[in-house]
Amino acid sequence: MATPNGTLVHPAYFLLVGIPGLGPNVHFWLAFPLCFMYGLATLGNLAIVLIIRMERQLHEPMYLFLAMLSTTDLVLSSVTMPKMTSLFLTGIQEIEFNVCLAQMFLIHALSAMESAVLLAMAFDRFVAICHPLRHASVLTRPTVAKIGLAALIRGFVFFFPLPFILKRLSYCQTHTVTHSYCLHQDIMKLSCTDTTVNVVYGLFIILSVMGVDSLFIGLSYILILRAVVDMSSWGAALKALNTCISHLCAVLVFYVPLIGLSVVHRLGGPTSLLHVIMANIYLLLPPVVNPIVYGAKTKKIRSRVLRIFSLDGR
Hints:
Layout: E1 13-16, H1 24-54, H2 61-90, E2 94-96, H3 97-130, H4 135-138, H5 141-159, H6 161-167, E3 176-177, H7 184-189, H8 196-229, H9 234-242, H10 245-266, H11 273-297, H12 299-313
Parallel strand pairs: 1-3
Antiparallel strand pairs: 1-2
């Protein structure tokens, strides 16, 4: 509903709930592990980006895609975690309307970029295992750069309309966002006008971006498994699969919470504690887990980190 003179009603700010059902004291103490997670995510992802940039031997497609993934995680954690920490520590719930829309756009666009990078990494593993002789000619540095640019442009183009289709709505009822940050589906539910366009476009982009990416990642691993099964040596097969473990962990950490969050939102009904927990896992876990997994499983990165600490200890 618009106002009688036809103008739209936009609130000056939204209110962030944090985690429903928990009081200010619990929120206050939750801020400290959240700070630790943010520090871990920042240091881990920054270390991976700097190590890959400094080590020329790591300027290979797999590591360049990893640097893109870490950069995306670094920005995504910086968009979400500081505001959450402030909310939990101070109890100040207000977030300006336009700031909320900007945060919402960045969260969704960066998630789309991360999905695209995970697809590119799956393609890299497919070519390396199924067509090893063509790997160097297919995934050249210019090609890798173009893939990174395409991921950036796609994330921007698909999600750029979201703030504008939210601004065409009126918000004349409650202004409370039931998460610790702004998401499209939460803001949309606060409107007192018809949200059909938002629902349809939101479903379209989730299927055409994350849905298509997950299908192609699954297809890549089906072809990888077929190639591994056909290998004559079990040692070679295990070695090939071992190169995929880190990427598989990153895919599961990203897509399992995303699918769960999409399912619970599509089921309808009021936002529950389950919605909030799934959303927090979806946004907070990958930036923290990915550097740990890749640092532990990638020998060249692990040896470089150990070398840095050994030099510091002398």
